[in-house]
């Protein structure tokens, strides 16, 4: 009987420890202007604030006029633009070694800028960003991504026409790898890509047609490092 009680107690402690590890934060909100909602993996929802933790399995959603910046455990950073839905599928990083490195995030709606952290530098093959159209891989990268689905009418373009539906990316540093079932291309620094849908191959586009995701200076600036993430005092996206 005593052994059974001990075994039950050990099992309960193990379940508690597992629950705590699952709830451990993998990032923190460092900048926020507006309303940011999170839906946790257990289905519960709440509003986040500056210094709120971000956990594995979290789906973040920014409201209209809301920008949010997240700093992850490997010092990688992502800025979400308004009306964006972003999910942290997995974020595993250890200072002890790269064997457990694994980052999978998803851009489900809207747009963002991303600067990859230490994981992206030492183990870039273990990072990917999924979208409904294509997957974005990295090579030590700073990039922007915008996913349009009849909701980009406010994005300015040279022609005056809203960006086409699909995935638009711009690469500021390093390179990105855009891939889906129809093809894979590498986007070098200073270049742009467009993927119409999951059934169309990704393609490079000239700068005159490329869409660059930019952010307000109050969100994009990084005072301690003296650099920004595509900061812009005007529109949150621009065509070059």
CATH topology: Jelly Rolls
Mean pLDDT over the full residue set: 85
Task: Please report the number of helical segments.
Answer: 3
Strand count, sense and barrel status of the largest sheet are: 15 strands, mixed
Tell me the overall shape. globular
- What structural class do helix, strand and pairing data support? mainly beta
Give unreliable regions as ranges: 4-22, 233-240
Molecular structure report:
It is a single chain. By secondary structure, the chain is mainly beta. It has a single domain (26-239), classed as Jelly Rolls (Sandwich), CATH 2.60.120. It is 12% helix and 48% strand. The chain contains 3 helices and 17 strands. It has helices at 2-22, 118-122, 217-220; strands at 25-33, 36-39, 45-47, 53-55, 59-62, 67-72, 77-80, 85-94, 97-115, 127-130, 135-148, 166-180, 183-188, 191-195, 203-205, 211-213, 237-239. The strands form 2 sheets. It has a 15-stranded mixed sheet that branches. A two-stranded antiparallel ribbon has the order 16-17. A hairpin with a 4-residue loop joins β6 and β7. It is globular, with a radius of gyration of 19 Å. Mean pLDDT is 85; it is low at 4-22 and 233-240.
């Amino acid at each position: 009987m005593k052994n059974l009680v001990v075994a039950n107690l050990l099992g309960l402690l193990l379940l508690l420890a597992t629950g705590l590890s699952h709830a451990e934060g993998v990032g923190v909100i460092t900048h926020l202007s507006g309303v940011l909602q999170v839906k946790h993996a257990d289905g519960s929802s709440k509003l986040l604030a500056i210094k709120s933790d971000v956990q594995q399995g979290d789906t973040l959603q920014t409201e209209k006029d809301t920008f949010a910046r997240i700093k992850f455990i490997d010092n990688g950073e992502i800025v979400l633009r308004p009306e964006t839905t972003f999910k942290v599928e997995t974020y595993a990083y250890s200072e002890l070694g790269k064997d457990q490195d694994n980052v999978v995030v998803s851009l489900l709606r809207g747009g963002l800028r991303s600067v990859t952290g230490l994981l992206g530098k030492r183990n870039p093959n273990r990072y990917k960003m999924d979208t409904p159209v294509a997957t974005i891989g990295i090579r030590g990268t700073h990039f922007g991504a915008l996913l349009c689905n009849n909701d980009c009418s406010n994005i300015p373009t040279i022609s005056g026409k809203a960006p086409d539906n699909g995935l638009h990316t711009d690469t500021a540093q390093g390179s990105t790898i855009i891939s889906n079932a129809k093809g894979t291309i590498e986007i070098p620094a200073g270049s742009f890509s467009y993927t119409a849908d999951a059934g169309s191959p990704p393609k490079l586009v000239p700068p005159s047609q490329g869409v660059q995701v930019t952010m307000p200076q109050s969100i994009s600036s990084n005072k301690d490092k003296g650099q920004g993430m595509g900061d812009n005092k005007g529109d949150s996206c621009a065509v070059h």
